[in-house]
Amino acid sequence: MNIESPKVTVNKSPQELYDFLTNVENFEKLMPESISKFEVLAEGKFLFALKGMPEIVLKLKESTPPNKVVLGAASDKLPFTLTGDIQELEEGKSEAQLLFEGDFNPMMAMMIKGPIGKFVNTLAENMSKL
């Protein structure tokens, strides 16, 4: 299952946005209002929960400065990645897009596609407000 956020413009250079996204504490600022829990567990690893959804632990899996940040599920029960692609638009401005890739059975994919799509779009939208 693949979900792409719309591309958003962020008033930060690619390096500034990359630095922001690789510091997982900053994801709390991007979370939707429906967040019920956010906790940094270790460097590069955090837990969050949205109302009505199970807790999810994400960890920094890969990063390529200043253009790519990949977070992945810490558990193999829900195997997925969330990739932030960052491109420079002009001096001090970036274009960012979030890509969600998950390997779920068809029933699970059908149930979570809507909420995950909304979540990914909210993260991108909140990124554009930085």
UniProtKB/TrEMBL annotation:
Under the heading InterPro entries, the entry gives:
START-like_dom_sf (IPR023393)
Species of provenance: Kordia algicida OT-1
Name of this chain's protein: Orotate phosphoribosyltransferase
